[in-house]
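FAQ
Q: What does a multi-component entry look like?
A: The components come first, one per line:
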Amino acid sequence: MSERLTGVVVAHSELAASLLAAVRAIAGEDHGLVAVSNTGCDRASLLRSLEAAIAGRPAVVFTDMAGGSCAFTAAALARGHGEVRVVTGVNLAMLVDFAFHRELPVEDAARRAVEVGRTAVGLVAK
Amino acid sequence: MSVVLYRIDDRLIHGQVVVGWGQRLGIGFIVLVDEGVRANVWEQELYRMGVPPAIDVVFATVGEAAEHAAEWERDPRKGIVLTGDVETMAALCAALPEVRKVNVGGIHAREGRTERLRYVFLTEDEAARLRALAGRGVEVTAQDLPTTKPVPVADLA
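Then the predicted structure of the entire assembly, as tokens:
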């Protein structure tokens, strides 16, 4: 069996750690996710933190804002790593789903996360 | 005046710039003065994709910025000129004496720098460059977001 995927959540302030706490509460400890904050980081130091979190493994990197420093840095990193894909606009639904689908190839897992994340956003009927 | 903010920010184009300042000021363009990004077409595309389509992004060297600054000042839209470090902003100000205000928006921890504010870390050389800018009459303040209080250069450099 091939290695299961790693997920890295990189976001502003404490968002990534808080999302992981929420994933743990729903999916338990076997989620394969690592949290990285951009607090106090310039681009170079954030890149080093991301590289350490990925540690050369196949990974999906989840970032908060499409136009933010986390997304730009993750995209720059992914460019040099064939087995790393970046998903922007992270939400809890896509992370919980990812925790249960880490056996997928990285490309499939990233595309699935985008679909699940999009489906989770909606206007509640009243 | 069309360029409403000259900012030093080592995260370059990011949320604080595009949303925090951009929304508040109603900007229509961002000029990123950075030799590395200017030379990297892929990185330029990446930044363009991350910025709302209503905001134009221009990439320039210091020389190109000096050459085109008058055009940007005539632009009916408001704009932000951004550098990733103190050295580049100092060079830009030397080439453009009309720059009267510089915003220190984010310079993060690195070896040789000491903390001046939560979001400003400077080497002695960087502090001296900021003081020199202020000495030439440029108003240098640190302010990460429009909603926070500007901190004068004397309190950080």
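Q: Is there any commentary attached?
A: Sometimes. For this entry: The interface with chain A takes residues 10-15, 18-19, 42-43, 46-47, 49-52, 106-110 of chain B (CB under 8 Å).
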